[in-house]
Amino acid sequence: MPGMRKMTLVMAILLLCGGYVGTAYAIPAFSRQHKVECTTCHTIYPELNEYGEAFLKNSYVYTHTKLQVEKPAAPVILGGGGDPALLEKLKAQAPESAASKVAGPAATKNEGLWLAAIPEQLPLSVTATLNASYNKNAPNNGEYDLSTRAVALQAGGNFREKFGFFAKYTLYSEGVYNPTVGNALASNANVPKNNGSELNELFLTWRQPMDLPVNLKFGRFRPKLSLWKSSNKIAVASFATHSYTVGKSPFTIDSPQDGVELNAVVAKRLFMAAGVVDRNGQKNKEGYGHLSYKIGGADFLGNEPMIDLDSDSIWDYLSIMIATYGYSGRNANIVAGVGQNYNDYYRLGVDLEILYQKLRLRASGVKGRDNNPDFSTIKGYINSLAVSAEAEYMFDTNIIAAMRYEYLFDQTYTGERHVYSPYLAYSPLQNIRLVLEYRYEDYVTPTITDNKIANVGLSFSF
Amino acid sequence: MKSMKIVWAFLLVLLMAFPCHAALKTIGKSDKLTFDPTNFPPQMKSDWQIMKVKCVKCHTMERTVVSITTGVAPISGQPFDRGATRAYGVKMMRKPDSNMNKQEVKACVDLMNWMLEESAKQ
User: Fold this and answer.
1) Element (H, E) at A241
2) How many CB atoms lie within 10 A of CB B32?
3) Nearest C-alpha in B relative to A305
4) A78, A188, A209, A253: which has the highest count of C-beta atoms within 10 A?
5) Per-residue pLDDT tens digits for B91-106
6) Which residues contact A210 (CB under 8 A, 6 or more apart)?
7) CB contact, 8 Å: A7 with chain B?
8) β-strand A382-396 against A124-135: which pairing, if any?
9) Superkingdom of the source (chain A) (predicted)?
């Protein structure tokens, strides 16, 4: 168990193997680059463990200080012409290159590529997601739905640990099948059309520019709000707190946005992030902030906790993460490139995660208010609330069972519901995830039919 | 008798010529590479019985051998010293699927520390 896995973090690769359905932060490119298994950073991909979280927070860089293993100085030997043994001695005495000194294990890598900050391997990955569902109450004879949901191309890594980068490009996602819009073939193709390719994320993070204690992230990315990305889950469905919308407003707290973010790990256990988002069609900028703190467990840099091997303590296995965040934004109905009928909104959220050995508990709550979510000429505000709680238990490395409860409320009262969702995830290989999930959506309004949905999710990444 | 003395003296010299760090030997190659516990002290042999079972649940023993014998963790490139053995031990103990308790981790850490000392002699 020694050293090998340390990278965990790192490498995060850590992270690895996985593509995320929503956002992929752990991709096989990390595994290839750092030569570590997916479980270094994941439980069952794409859900991250604490080392994957640390790798992500540090822009895909292993954060442990790289100490140089100094070679003992050897007396200089002159000569050596034609003597293989002497030549080896001379090589052993040769000063290390800049690349080998800084890169440690990179000593065996291509120095030219290292100096150019170019990854030795093209850091690309592909993730495919296939879902099937059964909903007895689905309209249009659509009880069974078997479809390819998405194929995504991902890239991620770092440039000489000074810059981190990530990109996700959706090559295919299932087109809308909506017979209510008409009977044209285009609307009702037997095989749903492609929604169209989409650049979901593309960002670069400058790690501690000019030795400042913060990282600068810019591009298209998901603002750091919740403790977890919407993709950081095993279930098919995202947490309601990550995915709920109000009225016609498309905003969710995990929507990709164009923006700039400053973030930093402070004192190893506090993470702070703040950013500005630019939205087309308006002058106003949007802003957000995040604070999270971790008690117990490995810190945000991936360092192990101090544990006394001679006595027991509950903190040997217990870790608690808490976070709070806020987002203030404005969106609008865009007409001819100009926003109209603005909707000003905010979201305030609190997250909690408790990890104890094989048990993980997550709880999340988001409160919001939109003053014109339908983009009407006459504004009408709507308050909203979403709560999610989930308990998962790892029976083995590749089997996790969980139960999720969610509650959604908005003042229209049309969508208020309780959702109960047990699921079982199995990973026959580390880069393949199979999930069986049942969702019971219990609407509070009696006139709305409850949904009882069975989902089978399959995803693989390479 | 004289010739016998010479023979004994010769044998004694031969014995003295053996390295004193012969306790740490490896056998096998590549992913089959592992330690040869033949010359381990009794306590270390006991610890080895734990280590050889627990460590290979998630990775090959080759990783451990390389870390111990080179002093550098092969994946991270970090120095593999007494501090690292403890950190890795704790990390493995805390992995939900490692099924290692504190006593087992302590045994592995003690063994790795002893191995590092032996390796340093070579």
Assistant:
1) helix A240-243
2) 10
3) B90
4) A253
5) 888 888 788 888 899 9
6) none
7) yes
8) unpaired
9) Bacteria
